[in-house]
Design brief:
alpha+beta; DNA-binding; about 230 residues; six-stranded antiparallel beta sheet; globular; Arc Repressor Mutant, subunit A; homodimer
Chain lengths: ~230, ~230
DNA sequence: TAATAAATTTAGATTTGTCTAAAAAATATT
DNA sequence: AATATTTTTTAGACAAATCTAAATTTATTA
């Protein structure tokens, strides 16, 4: 009666996408609402309700009518496995196939659903067990553990303190296009020269380049660690 | 009104699997029967009929009731694109991720349905534009062209003529396990020392190793090119 | 060629994931 | 607290891909 004889349940791509979405929403708010899920998944609340009932019977989440939803530890385990695959593939696409870091998200959304466990482990080894993906997000290891970086929002960085960009707040192509234009990426070292309270824009300096200002919205979308 | 503005139709994984199966069956027989398809796809004849009607409206194949089916040039183009992806991924799995060549088929069956065109082209470049996959099958290029190797069945190789294994007749794990045990793979150089008409077994010699005999069935599953 | 067998198609049902519209519950407002 | 608003759930329907069972067409054979 050993663990070996549990046959691992498998889930549809749709189910996996629900689990992943709940996982990400759960980071901020404790429990996740039907409407939020519907909006993130571009579907209708009624569809979400149906799926939640199904995923509850599969023990991936706990759900009470009208009370919102939380992943069980089983659900979290699955979510981490999917996130792991997503970020490993992103790393592969950028560092081996020479994709731009702003064009890998959609492809990784597909690749993350490939089921072979062996593939993931071999890919991880091939890539040299990277700890962070090209957007600066941590990659869970094979046990679901990931390093947490001591990172703060750029808007909160004190003036004249050098820091390194280590994550972005969203994967939208609009943001990534802007960053590319301004030549800012993961690993970019910068410091704030001035904060303008009028519009909360900030003047930053990258390396030895001349200073320039960025908007509040952009600053809020960047996370840095002090170096 | 240029080609650019055609939006490329996209197909479900199921539809792609039908197209691929028809493509492979079509190689041998001219037209493909409903029952053969059902058997290859592990489904029922009735389901096949339904799908054929659908794929006909999508102009991927020509189909008349009770008359069997053939791919149109559109269908062939799609099939070649899928085969290309399948074989490129197999090459990747074996030559970059260190998979055994007998364990890549199932994973490649999943990876071949990833849609990004850019991914395929970049993968191809990353791999150095390989012409043959780990089983010796030719990889179509981005235009769907593939090299045809001058290959013959091992059973037809003349005695004492050195040849190189370049393809296998099936991907069954049973076959691949046997080949692994006997240390025969793509690229193995060998020659036939003797043919036994009693059971059609043959005695072969690999490199400088002692000769050994293999069964008719095994010999028929191996393709070689003379060197 | 008529009868039989095999292959194929139709008809109707099922499952998965979705939808709309309406009902019910929770939350907010006066 | 009563009413209005928002959120969520139910009920019923739909499309995709499948199934079984029955009907039809083609092929075989006596």
């Amino acid at each position: 009666m050993s663990k070996k004889y549990f046959k691992p349940m498998s889930f549809s791509i749709t189910e996996e996408n629900y689990i992943k979405a709940i996982f990400h929403l759960q980071q901020e708010e404790g429990t996740v609402s039907t409407n939020d899920l519907a909006s993130v998944l571009s579907t209708r609340a009624a569809s979400v309700t149906d799926m939640l009932k199904k995923l509850k019977t599969k023990k991936l989440l706990s759900y009470e009518k009208y009370k919102g939803v939380r992943l069980t530890s089983e659900g979290k385990k699955l979510a981490l496995a999917i996130v792991r695959k997503h970020r490993l593939w992103e790393y592969f696409l950028v560092n081996k196939l020479q994709f731009g870091w702003d064009e890998v998200h959609e492809v990784a959304e597909e690749l993350e659903h490939i089921t072979s466990r062996k593939l993931v482990e071999k890919l991880d080894a091939f890539l040299g067990f990277p700890r962070f993906d090209p957007h600066g997000d941590p990659i869970p290891d094979s046990h679901g553990k990931m390093l947490v970086q001591q990172q703060i929002n750029l808007i909160d960085l004190p003036v004249n303190k050098t820091a390194e960009v280590c994550a972005v707040g969203s994967q939208s192509t609009e943001l990534l296009e802007l960053l590319r234009h301004k030549n800012i990426g993961i690993g970019t070292k910068l410091e704030i020269k001035k904060k303008f309270s009028f519009d909360h824009s900030i003047e930053i300096r990258v390396r030895n380049q001349p200073a320039f200002t960025i908007s509040q919205q952009l600053a809020q979308a960047l996370f840095v660690k002090t170096v």
